[in-house]
User: What shape does this take?
Amino acid sequence: MKTKYMNPYLAGLMLGLVLLMAFFFSGRGLGASGAFKNLLVASEHIVAAEHVETNGYFGKYVADGKNPLNSWLSFEILGVLVGGFISGALSGRLKIKVEHFPKITANKRLTMALIGGVLFGFGSQLGRGCTSGSALTGMAVLSLGGFITMAAIFGTAFGLAYTFRKNWI
Amino acid sequence: MGPLVPQEIIGQDWNMLIAFIIGIGFGFALEQAGFSSSRKLAGLFYGYDTVVLKVFFTAAVTAMLGLLYFSLFGWIDLNLVYVNPTFIWSAIGGGVIMGAGFIIGGFCPGTSVCAAAIGKIDAMIFLAGVVIGIFVFGEGYPLWKEFYNSGNLGNPKISEILGVSGGVMALLVIIAAGIMFWIGEWAEKKFTREEY
Assistant: This one.
């Protein structure tokens, strides 16, 4: 059975309008990796407060008693969870599973997902935002950095596609 | 008029609720597009499914044109809209590492949240990886601090660099998007793959 998704151009239009509303209401674009940075910093702060406060990168998020979870991105990403769930429920796609190419094992897929996640997490900090915050939002406001990051992400993924083809095709 | 919160037309207290509602729209659109499946996301790099390209560029063009028209009608003050800063070396370096993460992991952070929301275990593991990656970056910060802050160009717009107006730039992006959509449609017919 072929899974039914929304027409991609229509979905893109919807996503673009959501992004436009973020600009119109809050004066900023969408994001994702920043919310996980907030979550990490807040959790780490509970177990090692002083260590986080003196960290050159994380320290600014807890300076002056700030709570990093009380941020725009944290609430936005909670919404993403809810919105994704609603969409999956309406389209009959709620299912606990490991999605993987049949010629690789589920464990192989999970290992690759973990490695890919670590790289993406690290890269998103170095690049000051991920596909949502830096590439998509950056392009919409015509930020030079947004275009560069977008080209680097997609260019590298295309360049490495042959190397990692056995995971996907 | 806009942006409403920075100009205090809507109170700061409402900003978190607005963020949550916008997030719902974001998550809904991503999931409806099929971004909750790593098979569809990775498809772009093998040509069998170019939904990423189509959704990403349609969204970027829609928001870009929306901002231009809103600004033209005086509905939004673009000076108050955040423009991402450009640190040229870390933008490239970060993008390259993220690109590797994309083809290896099959998600990006936002799409993995959607996929985790509908029960994909691979997405939950990817997200755990994202947190670990951010942890490594923060804890080892002194090692890459210099690289991270190198090549600071401020907050330039690509239109300023190319010396064209925002409108001309938008037209160029639309033409580029149109060409890529055409290539995408062609690739999907040529590299068709079975679903799994």
Q: What stands out?
A: Chain B touches chain A through 132 residues (CB under 8 Å). Residues 12-190 of chain B form one domain. Chain B has a mean pLDDT of 96.
